[in-house]
């Protein structure tokens, strides 16, 4: 979802009788949103750069979502990422670990995946999978430092422009 610069509706119409599920990943540099229908179809993807804080970024995403969609149709919401504590507990959103969220989402689209490399703003994560999520999997991450992270790579690419 990081490549999305603005809201992208993948399904133009939202049937009123359908239930939807909201997922939000709050990273160190961006907040990503996904909306999935009850059939497992990705309906919307959106991202917002964190500039004034993660809560403001989440609020901007939810506001944009509400412009083309009835928020009352969302029956469950989940959050993951390093900033997941930005979501108030009273909202009762489910909290998920980043590795589980990444693996589940990727396996939904690519069920035969064996290795996942995720480069975030502050860390890089490698997940080794065997037999989908049914067997224990291996997770390796770098210590928090600049080298090998998305923000570092973004800075170097900017220098090359």
TrEMBL record:
One Pfam family cited in the UniProt record for this chain: BcrAD_BadFG
Residue ranges of every copy of the ATPase BadF/BadG/BcrA/BcrD type domain listed in the record: 22-160
SUPFAM superfamilies assigned: Actin-like ATPase domain
Classification via InterPro entries: ATPase_BadF, ATPase_NBD, Dehydratase_Activator_Redct
Protein name per its UniProtKB record: ATPase BadF/BadG/BcrA/BcrD type domain-containing protein
Organism: marine sediment metagenome
């Amino acid at each position: 979802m990081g490549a999305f610069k603005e809201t992208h509706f993948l399904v133009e119409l939202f049937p009123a009788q359908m239930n939807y599920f909201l997922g939000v990943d709050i990273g160190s540099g961006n907040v990503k949103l996904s909306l999935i229908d009850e059939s497992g179809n990705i309906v919307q993807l959106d991202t917002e750069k964190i500039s004034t804080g993660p809560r403001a970024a989440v609020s901007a995403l939810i506001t944009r979502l509400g412009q083309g969609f009835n928020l009352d149709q969302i029956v469950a919401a989940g959050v993951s990422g390093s900033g997941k504590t930005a979501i108030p507990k009273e909202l009762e959103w489910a909290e998920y670990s980043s590795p589980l969220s990444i693996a589940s989402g990727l396996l939904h689209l690519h069920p035969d995946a064996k290795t996942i490399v995720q480069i975030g703003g502050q860390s890089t994560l490698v997940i080794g999978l065997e037999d989908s999520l049914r067997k224990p999997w291996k997770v390796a991450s770098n210590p928090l430092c600049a080298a090998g992270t998305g923000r570092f790579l973004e800075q170097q690419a900017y220098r090359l422009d």
